[in-house]
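Weekly structure sync, notes
Attendees: PL (lead), two postdocs, one rotation student
Agenda item 3: pending single-chain targets
PL asked that the sequence for the first pending target be pasted directly into the notes so everyone works from the same version. It is reproduced below exactly as submitted, 806 residues in total.
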Amino acid sequence: SHFSKNNLRERRRRIRQMANDEEEYASSSSPSSSEKAGRYCSCIQFQNIEFSGVTINFAEKNGVFNINGFTRALATGECRGAVESVFGPDRWPNTFVVRVLRCRGLKGSSTKQLAPNVRVYVRVRFQEARSRLHLRNRHPLINESFELLAKDPSSVVHVQVVDEGIGSQVIGNWVMTLKWFYLSPFFNHHNAMEVEKKKKKNGWVIKGWFPLLDDYFDVGADNGEIELWMSWTHKVENEGWQPKKLTSLQQITANSAETNLRLGNVKNVMTMLKRFPILFNLGNVTIRDIHFYLQDLFAGEAKDADSRQAIHMKLIEINDFKNTNYGIASGINLLDVLKQFSVGVALNVRSSTLSQGVTQVAGGLFTGFTSLFASTDTKVHTRDKKGRFFNLETIFATKRATVSALTAFDHDFWQGESMIKGFLEFDEENDARGFVLQKAEIRGACLFFHEVSRCDSEKTGPTQKIDLAMMLAAKIRRKNFGELIIETKSHQHSPSFFKFRVPSHVARPTLEDWLVAVQTHCVRRIPRAIHLELLRGHSLKSLDTDGGLDPYVIASVETRFGTQSSYSSRSSVKDGLNPKWNESLFLWPLDVQDSYQINNPRERGGSVRIDVWDDDMMSGDDLVGSLWLPMHLLSAHKGEHKEFRQFLCDTNGKEDKSLGSLSFKASIIRDVVMSKGRVMTAANEEEIKCKLEQIDNFASSSRIFRSLDRDGSGDLNMKELKPLQDVSDGQLTKDLHKFFGSNLKSSSGEQLKVSTLKYIDAQTLRALLGQEAEDVYEQLVTLQKKKTEGKIKAKELKDSAIAKTT
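Predicted structure, written out during the meeting:
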């Protein structure tokens, strides 16, 4: 049943129903005898139970505590056959590699409804890896890989997502015991998952979306989900690794913590024990002649096993079991048996040292059954890699972000190859540091960049983006070393400007290369979108004291992750309570997994959300009301541009006719292109064709560039550029004119300057020369060959002249 998604959903539903029933039963003030009796079928009565000659041995052998060694032996025996079928009998996986890609739908602070400051922790035993901090983001793109050493199949992988602020709060957990990785990889909580079975030497890779469970590991809790790629593999360089030596007390503590994680939802375990259908009526429990071997637990492994001293207790007697009348009989359930027995043993132990040992032992045996034992809570420290506390002013900074943070819905980051990448310096608004070194690249229709260290180029900041499809203009301003100015459309009243420059120590790509790439990739293709034609408003409610209203509309696609997972569109501001817009807005879901909601009539989770706002420059904009149009209504009309009129709803989602209504038309359209901040449809067919041809030409020249890249490095090195640098301007102009004719022009028809060609780089070469780049390269190589032969001949003549002189 673990391999069936429908069965898994049914099992989760039954677990939630069972927990709800138990809460209702527990909340009832005085359940009747018939209700109590209905839970149990019989009662077993014990007048007296006596144990004699009990030996409890906690020993350490070769540095391994016996409970931990036994747990490992059981797990190894279970999964040995499955592991050997992948790696063979002579190899065993020793490295756990996990790539944390992204999170979606994370919950923030419950009090202020703020987006969380997200950090992801990955733990295996006493090893811990953590991601960078992502500020105020419900759908962060993590994209970090971690490697932890793990040979023991009983180890528990614990992934934890934390909201770090003044008071750190756990958002969600996900756990998996390593033995299931090859034994039954689907035996874990997952939403969408696949197993990629690679070659035997590499092992398997588990990929998918996994739900984040709360501290009670409740399956029904909606705390968001995390995308992971995991592999438990064998690496030769880690063959000699051994875990650090721990005391027996540390080992049993770790075992208790992992047992607690394996139990998962402790509440459900307690419910299972409480619902065991047999009652127990216990009179007296006597334990005589007990020998505790606890020396190894506190003092380490004994050199001579015969010299180990036992702690001897003559008698433990428990006779105060509190039975309850359940109608059919008087007794206690199985959970109360374990609780009262554990408490009774602890109360009968006199030695303080022995009490500590018994508490640890009981914690390992009965974890989760009583509040006396270990908790699933994990302490979180808000420190950086060097142990310094974070500056909370940075975390809660209120300055306006000029650049968009990367989210899980930025599929440009995953799709396609990087068309240009290198180093830039970015001057962010309100940043006193000025130009900061960034590593940048263009993927799809976005410019992605993140801050790096000037010493070792290590990533030191989150990845940010600029949507080039919203770019209005790009130009180079000649100032100092030159600056690339990118102007983009903004929802604010004025456009946004971004300033970049190439660092002085970087030769390629040049500022001109970035300009060509930015102007080329400013087009976004959209396979399906929603065309919303906003007509007019009717009797909208005024929120101002003077009875006026300056309404505007923001439309978006609302999915299960809210409106942040869609491209929103904003109308112009009108005047009056009955405004007439007659404007076209376009919107679409950013997540490709949600795009099916547009064309699937049965999917009722997605909807078009339209918010009406009152523009107020003095006190801030006010929300007048909202309305929702279910997505399946659009899908059912098969592209028909149908008119709708709906009343607005209040902040609670209830329809309120006093807020007014909106008239609009909506339909689904295909093959849309976005450029310069506006959407172009079939009416702009010629402009669309020109833009798409520009992108195709750039992609074609990219293939030609790969044929010129002789060493496959991804760029033209100095050796490959040497023909351009050694040939004089006059000679290069003469020979190129011979090859191309009198007019030396690029593929776009522009006149080429020889001075530019002399210091050309990869991006400029493929962008300017297009399909003729290879011919140009071969011609230049021929010129260089002739020049080299001439140098050799001249050197020979010089040497012979020196010989004659001598």
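Discussion points:
- The chain has a mean pLDDT of 75.
- The longest helix spans residues 773-805.
Action: rotation student to compare against the earlier draft before next sync.
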